[in-house]
């Protein structure tokens, strides 16, 4: 029986662990990760491929656009078949019966509104966002609150109204008293969660009551993302039934409730699958003749280290945003295995002069072999039993492409399956 | 005297605004042109130490600094954050006793702290330090000070033009003739992605009566006029463009060769010390730590600049090590940014307070312009006095300088707090900046509203490590609906680019991590950079191809039906209006 050790419990690591367990139910799978603080930065909306080179508007169908990607892009390495399987695996995990259900509708991208009145192409979106697609052509009404500066409803509505072939209306109303002192959307979300225990469900009712007089005939009403963290489905449905409208959220500020929900859902799925999880940081490793033997891990605030040995290891530590890659004055490093990194080494060449330009630092990452083993500059596997998935993979600007989610899902699934079958 | 000369001051740093103020108080006609925001140059990057003369090498300079320090305490007390600094001195250079002796001679007040007193005053100092000196080197908020100078000048009739660049200075027969000013604030239509596209209301960008005139009421959303130029005919020009004096002189065809030096400061995420302190070294090599809007700033390392367009931070390791030796916490504090100020100087200027006035009439046979080289924040008022004396003499005017006795106006008194009918709400959680703080900043008639840097220097938004990453898009909404959507976007974009310019010089460690998180948020979650498109709903047959759009417009028409329309659009029925009526 083999032991599969995954480092990093973001989307890619979690999917890799789940896929490995699914394909090798007898294997021991361990998922190691530092406290995943960074979920707070994620909205929970998943892009597979939103933009390709040379186009400045969202592409319609991710799968149909693969041919335009470079040959070293993870999608090209995986191939379309495995890509579809990966997405199907995700859809199955987050289907309508699960606690957090994601849409798995079409192969087309969906367009969601952003808090600055723009649109964003996504491929997989949670139920909380599904009534709010701007590519759904029904009129919508956007609600903002006097006390909250996260979303200016008038601005968003006016921008959408002038670019969309349907009416977008807005209103800005006061928050119910119980919420009016709160400034963080997640705090409001948690208060709404607990309010459902109260048989009157007063806060949700008050929230809806403040909005109701403002509505015309719009069948769908958008709020800043704050409608519950744990009991989000119930909170949303409570507000929706009071308003006689479908209710959706627009991701507004960190910590994102959407990210917190996905984190909880992933954690539960991993637990239910019988995968062992540990909140630790991996710092070092031991190897013998090109094979990794064990990892040395540290618990959060202790200096104590323990060793975890395994047969095969998956590097899913994310990119520079998650600590999977670190910048130093002399270059970017992958801190655990010191894998070789693609991209310029001089910090002065790391960035574009415009804040939202195509920054080379967004393409930093490890280079891999056809089996997704981190590769040396000459193209050989650095360690025979080490594989890399997710944002730690380099060579493409996944932020610009809107492909982070899809890369995480597809590479996590595909590598998890391969190693399960091989070891 | 019948004729009042018109003086154009180029540069809205502390020195330029000081000069404008002096001339205005003397009753001359003054226009100040600053190409960006006030303090956009070196002034915004300096440490803000108001020296007392304690550290000066010569007694003469010490007396000058002491005098200016006292005057500024008198007229600009509200701009001073700390009255004193701590000086730690290593015996190898100059001992505490020798320094005390020097301070006695110069009649500079001081006290010596020993043992537990040190810990009580500044707990962050290393235990190894058993004696140090407290001197009246004060710490000023250079933003407040510069704005106060400009406001004072304005009260005496000066015209203050920000976002206004001097792009040409014509010279006729050896005399300054007309000057071209270009007004180009952020948020103008040409910043937006499609300049030629007609706006929704039927107007054309730039043709509406935009502008930011105070008190103007206009029901139409405002737009910013694009790249307007204007000619002026000043009698005399003062070139106080800081690091760009050479370039400004070159616009008038004057070739000056100066030395450019960049000075690097290190900004921290936290505040390692409470009281400003320095590790004293003779010469210009001392390490100084001050605090700005809640975060620590350590300076400076100076290095020569050969290419003004590619200024990189100096190696600050030695500087940090120097400070770490006396404040161990500095070693652990997160460095968030290096900031470089480039100043023009001349080899003949012995120290950083010294200045030179170059009269181009004498030097380059070009009457009507004087360039200020060098100088410091501490001596800015004195320099202004010298400049005004010299220029007034040319016009036969003998009015006294009064700047030392007229107080500078404080922002709180000068700008009426806006009447906020909406409840108070927070825009930046990190720096506790509220909507009314922002509205207050915008209410200032010195402010170009679409320049969010104005809000930044007045409120602290976007300082420290976060660089406005979470609040910039919320901040800009304070301009809405007064300004239209395009202006809002262009203004935000330009603000983010400014913040980024400051940041990108030092992308390593946590700063790279932060930059990536911000990039993800702004690029994906907000998707700030969406170009101009209109979404249409058509089935494929009846839509001609997008290329048939007029070529002068970048606007694209996108067929929305080609995208996922979601699970609910067809499945469910529309709610009926009546249902909502209870
Ligand atoms: C909650 C959530 C929301 C998302 N929202 C979006 C979205 O809005 N748009 C989109 O396109 N994609 C989104 N995604 C997908 C996400 O972008 C991808 O999951 C991510 O960017 C790439 O995933 P990753 O697993 O490679 O890296 P990450 O998600 O960055 O995860 C890396 C993990 O590794 C851990 N780690 C790093 N170093 C170590 C170490 N030395 N030892 C132990 N652990 C370590 C980190 O703590 C982190 O938990 C979301 C994912 C999640 C989980
Ligand atoms: C790192 C550092 C730390 C310092 N610390 C201290 C200190 O602690 N104490 C002290 O006393 N002094 C200090 N100084 C010195 C002091 O900051 C400067 O001497 C002073 O700020 C210079 O002001 P200025 O008005 O001459 O220049 P600037 O502030 O640079 O002003 C010039 C202005 O001209 C504008 N401009 C340029 N070209 C044009 C154009 N064509 N048209 C219109 N406008 C134009 C620029 O945008 C700029 O705003 C420090 C300097 C540095 C670099």
Describe the structure.
The complex is a heterodimer of chains A (423) and B (582). Chain A is of the alpha/beta class and 423 residues long. Chain A folds into two domains: 3-97 and 260-317 and 381-422, FAD/NAD(P)-binding domain (3-Layer(bba) Sandwich), CATH 3.50.50; 115-250, Rossmann fold (3-Layer(aba) Sandwich). Chain A is built from eleven helices and 17 strands. In chain A, the strands form five sheets. Chain A has a seven-stranded mixed β-sheet with strand order 11-10-9-2-1-12-17, covered by helices on one side. In chain A, strands 6-5-7-8 form a four-stranded parallel β-sheet, with helices on both faces. A two-stranded antiparallel ribbon of chain A has the order 3-4. The longest helix of chain A has 19 residues, at 404-422. The relative contact order of chain A is 0.19. By secondary structure, chain B is an alpha/beta fold. In chain B, strand 15 (277-280) and strand 16 (287-292) form a beta hairpin. The chains are: A alpha/beta (423), B alpha/beta (582). Chains A and B meet through strand 4, helix 5 and strand 13 of A and helix 15, helix 16, strand 23 and helix 18 of B. The structure holds flavin-adenine dinucleotide (2 copies). Chain A: It is an enzyme of class 1 (oxidoreductase). Chain A: Keywords: Flavoprotein, FMN, Oxidoreductase. Chain A: Its EC number is 1.1.5.3. Chain A: GO terms for molecular function: glycerol-3-phosphate dehydrogenase (quinone) activity.
Q: What is the approximate shape of chain A?
A: globular
Rg of chain B is 27 Å
Characterize the largest beta sheet of chain A: strand count, sense, and whether it forms a barrel: 7 strands, mixed
Number of domains of chain B: 3
**Structural class designation of chain B:** alpha/beta
CATH architecture of the largest domain in chain B: 3-Layer(bba) Sandwich
Tell me, briefly, the overall form of chain B: globular
Major sheet of chain B: 8 strands, mixed
- The total number of structural domains of chain A is 2
CATH class of the largest domain in chain B: Alpha Beta
Mean pLDDT of chain A: 92
Q: Could you state the CATH homologous superfamily of the largest domain in chain B?
A: FAD/NAD(P)-binding domain
State the fourth-level CATH superfamily of the largest domain in chain A: FAD/NAD(P)-binding domain
Biased composition (Gly residues) (chain B): 203-213
InterPro entries (chain B): BFD-like_2Fe2S-bd_dom_sf, FAD-dep_OxRdtase, FAD/NAD-bd_sf, G3P_DH_FAD-dep
EC number (chain B): 1.1.5.3
GO biological process, one term (chain B): glycerol-3-phosphate metabolic process
């Amino acid at each position: 029986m083999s032991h599969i050790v995954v480092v990093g419990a973001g989307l890619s690591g979690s999917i890799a662990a789940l896929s490995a367990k699914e394909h090798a139910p007898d294997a021991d799978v361990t998922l190691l990760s530092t406290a995943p603080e960074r979920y707070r930065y994620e909205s929970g909306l998943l892009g597979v491929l939103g933009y390709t080179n040379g186009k400045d508007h969202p592409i319609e169908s991710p799968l149909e656009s693969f041919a335009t990607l470079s040959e070293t892009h993870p999608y090209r390495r995986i191939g379309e078949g495995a890509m579809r399987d990966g997405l199907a695996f995700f859809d199955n995990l987050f289907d309508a019966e699960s606690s957090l259900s994601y849409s798995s509708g079409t192969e087309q991208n969906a367009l969601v509104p952003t808090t600055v009145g723009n649109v964003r192409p996504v491929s997989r979106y949670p139920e909380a966002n599904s009534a709010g697609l701007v590519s759904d052509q029904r009129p919508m009404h956007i609600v903002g609150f006097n006390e909250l500066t996260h979303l200016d409803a008038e601005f968003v509505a006016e921008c959408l109204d002038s670019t969309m072939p349907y009416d977008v209306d807005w209103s800005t109303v006061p928050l119910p008293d119980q919420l009016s002192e709160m400034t963080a959307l997640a705090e409001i979300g948690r208060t709404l969660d607990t309010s459902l225990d109260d048989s009157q469900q007063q806060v949700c009712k008050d929230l809806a009551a403040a909005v109701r007089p403002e509505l015309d005939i719009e069948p769908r009403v958008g709020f800043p993302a704050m409608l519950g963290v744990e009991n989000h489905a119930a909170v949303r449905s409570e507000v929706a039934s009071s308003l006689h409208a479908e209710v959706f959220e627009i991701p507004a500020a960190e910590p994102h409730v959407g990210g917190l929900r996905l984190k909880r859902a992933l954690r539960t799925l991993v637990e239910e699958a019988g995968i062992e999880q540990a909140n630790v940081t991996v710092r070092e490793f031991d190897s013998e003749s090109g094979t990794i033997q064990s990892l040395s891990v540290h618990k959060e605030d202790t200096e104590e280290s323990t060793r975890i040995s395994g047969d095969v290891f998956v590097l899913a530590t994310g990119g520079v945003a998650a600590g999977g890659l670190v910048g130093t004055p002399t270059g970017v490093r992958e801190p655990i295995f010191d894998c070789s990194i693609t991209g310029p080494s001089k910090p002065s060449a790391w960035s574009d002069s415009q804040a939202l330009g195509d920054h080379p630092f967004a393409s930093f990452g490890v280079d891999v072999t056809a089996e997704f083993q981190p590769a040396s500059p000459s193209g050989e596997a650095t360690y025979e039993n080490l594989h890399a998935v997710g944002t730690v993979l380099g060579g493409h600007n996944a932020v610009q492409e809107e492909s982070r989610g899809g890369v995480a899902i597809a590479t996590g699934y595909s590598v998890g399956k391969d190693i399960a079958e091989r070891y | 005297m019948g004729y009042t000369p018109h003086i154009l001051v180029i540069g809205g740093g502390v020195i330029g605004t000081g000069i404008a103020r002096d001339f205005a108080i003397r009753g001359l006609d003054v226009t100040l042109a600053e190409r960006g925001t006030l303090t956009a140059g070196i002034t915004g990057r300096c440490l803000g130490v108001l020296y007392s003369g304690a550290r000066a090498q010569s007694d003469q300079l010490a007396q000058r600094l002491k005098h200016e320090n006292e005057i500024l305490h008198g007229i600009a007390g509200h701009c001073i954050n700390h009255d004193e600094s701590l000086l730690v001195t290593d015996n190898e250079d100059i001992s505490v006793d020798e320094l005390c002796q020097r301070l006695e001679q110069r009649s500079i007040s001081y006290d010596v702290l020993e043992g537990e007193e040190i810990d009580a005053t500044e707990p962050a100092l290393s235990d190894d330090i058993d004696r140090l000196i407290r001197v009246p080197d004060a710490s000023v908020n250079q933003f407040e000070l510069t704005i106060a100078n400009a406001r004072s000048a304005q009260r005496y009739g000066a015209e203050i033009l920000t976002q206004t660049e001097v792009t040409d200075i014509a010279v006729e027969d050896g005399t300054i003739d007309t000057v071209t000013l270009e007004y180009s604030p952020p948020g103008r239509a040409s910043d937006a992605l499609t300049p030629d596209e007609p706006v929704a209301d039927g107007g054309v960008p730039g043709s509406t009566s935009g502008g930011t005139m105070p008190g103007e009421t206009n029901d139409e959303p405002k737009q910013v006029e694009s790249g307007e130029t204007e000619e002026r005919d000043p009698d005399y020009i003062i070139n106080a463009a800081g690091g760009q004096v050479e370039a400004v002189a070159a616009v008038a065809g004057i070739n000056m060769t100066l030395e450019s030096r960049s000075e690097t400061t290190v900004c921290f995420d936290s505040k390692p010390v409470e009281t400003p302190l320095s590790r004293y070294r003779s010469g210009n090599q001392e390490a100084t730590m001050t605090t700005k809007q809640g975060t620590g700033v350590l300076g400076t390392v100076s290095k020569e600049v050969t290419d003004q367009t590619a200024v990189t931070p100096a190696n600050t390791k030695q500087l940090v090590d120097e400070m770490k030796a006396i404040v161990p916490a500095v070693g652990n504090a997160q460095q968030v940014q290096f900031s470089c100020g480039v100043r023009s100087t001349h080899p003949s200027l012995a120290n950083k307070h010294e200045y030179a006035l170059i009269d181009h009439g004498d030097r380059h046979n070009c009457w009507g312009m004087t360039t200020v080289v060098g100088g410091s924040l501490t001596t800015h008022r004195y320099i202004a006095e010298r400049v005004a004396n010299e220029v007034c003499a040319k016009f036969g005017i003998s009015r006294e300088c009064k700047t030392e006795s007229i107080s500078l106006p404080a922002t709180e008194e000068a700008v009426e707090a806006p009447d906020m009918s909406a409840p108070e709400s927070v825009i930046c959680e990190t720096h506790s900046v509220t909507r009314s703080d922002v509205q207050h900043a915008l209410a200032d008639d010195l402010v170009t509203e679409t320049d969010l840097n104005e809000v930044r220097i007045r409120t602290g938004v976007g300082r420290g490590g976060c660089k406005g990453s979470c609040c910039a898009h919320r901040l800009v909404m304070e301009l809405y609906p007064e300004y239209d959507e395009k202006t809002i976007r262009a203004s935000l974009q330009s603000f983010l680019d400014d913040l980024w310019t400051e940041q990108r010089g030092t992308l390593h460690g946590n700063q790279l991590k932060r930059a990536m998180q911000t990039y993800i948020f702004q690029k994906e979650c907000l998707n700030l950079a969406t170009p101009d498109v209109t979404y249409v709903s058509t089935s494929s047959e009846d839509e001609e191809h997008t290329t048939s759009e007029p070529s002068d417009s970048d606007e694209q028409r996108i067929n929305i039906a080609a995208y996922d329309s979601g699970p609910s659009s067809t499945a469910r029925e529309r709610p009926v209006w009546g249902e909502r009526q209870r």
